[in-house]
Amino acid sequence: HAREQGQNTYQYFSKSLNAVAFQKLAMENSLRRALDRDELLLFYQAKVDMHRQRVVGGEALIRWRHPDLALVAPSQFIPIAEESGLIVPISNWVLETVCLQIREWQDRGISPAMVISANVSANQLHQPGFVGHVRNALTQAGIAPECLKLELTESMLLDHVDEALVTLRELRALGVKTSIDDFGTGYSSLSYLKKLPISELKIDRCFVRDLPDNEDDVAITTAILALARALSLDVIAEGVENQAQAEFLMAGGCHIAQGFLYHKPAPADEFFDFVAHFNQATLSNSGR
Ligand code: C2E
Ligand code: MG
Ligand code: MG
Ligand code: MG
C-alpha cells in the first residue's frame, strides 16, 4: 500500500515537473516573439510628494499582453527572460520606450522636473554596452539625463562591486539618477553603500506593510531613514497603501511615496491624466 502511494506521489510529482518544464519552454518561445509582435507594454505608477501633495515622478513597470492569457505580470516572465538571455533585448526596449514616453509627456506639457524610473536587471547592468545604451536612448528621445532614474537592487551592485562602481560612476557623469530598489531586503554592507555613487534608497514594501504597528518594521524604517539622511541620499517608500503608513513615514522625514494609496500602475495615457489632475488640484488648492 505504501509503495503504491509512493508510486502515485512519484508519478504525480514527475508529471507536474514536466508540466512546469513544458510551460516554461512554451513561455520562453512566445516571449521570444513578444517583442516583434508588440505584446510588451509599460505601465506607470506615480511617485507622490506626500507633503506637498504633488506627483514628482513615476516608475515604468513592464507588462506582457500575451495573446492567450490575461495581462502577464513581470514576476511571471522576467525570470524566464533572465535565464534565456531575452532580458537584453527586452531591457533595451524598456529603456528606449521610457525615454520616448518622457519625450512625449514633456511635449504635452509635463514638467521636465518629473523623473521617471526604469527597473534594471542584473544581466542588463553588467552588459558591456549598458551605459552607451542608456546614452543612446536619451539622445534618440532628446531628453535630459536628469529626467531618467534607474532602479537597481542591492545584490546586483554587491555581487560585482568593482564593475558596478565603474558603471555607477559613468551613469553619474552622464547625469542619470540611480536608486537602490527593495532596499533592506538584500545584505548591503554599509561601507559599500558609502562608496557607491547612488542618488536614492527605496524602502521595500515588506517594511512598509505593517507600519506603524509592527515594532520591528518601525525600527527598520527609522534606521533606513536615518541612514539616508546621514549619507545625504533621497529616500522613497514603496507599497504605501493607507494613511497611517503615510503619516508615520512623513513624521520620520520620508516625504516621497509610491503605492496604491495614491495610484495603481496604469497605461501611459492614464498616468498622464492622473498627473495632470492631481497636480492641477494641488496647484489650485494652494494658489491664493
Ligand atoms: P519593483 O520594482 O519593486 O516594483 C514595485 C512593485 O510593487 C510593482 O509590481 C508594483 O505594482 C507593486 N506595488 C506598488 N505599490 C504597491 C502597493 O501599494 N501595494 C502592493 N501590494 N503592491 C504595490 P509589479 O509591477 O508586478 O512589478 C514587480 C517587479 O517586477 C518589480 O518590482 C521589478 O522588480 C520587476 N519589473 C517590473 N518592470 C520591470 C522591467 O521593465 N524590467 C525589469 N528588469 N524588471 C521589472
Ligand atoms: Mg522598481
Ligand atoms: Mg521596489
Ligand atoms: Mg519591491
From TrEMBL:
All copies of domain EAL, residue ranges: 24-279
Protein name: cyclic-guanylate-specific phosphodiesterase
Species annotation: Methylomonas koyamae
Classification lineage: Bacteria, Pseudomonadati, Pseudomonadota, Gammaproteobacteria, Methylococcales
Residues of the full protein shown: 426 to 713 of 713
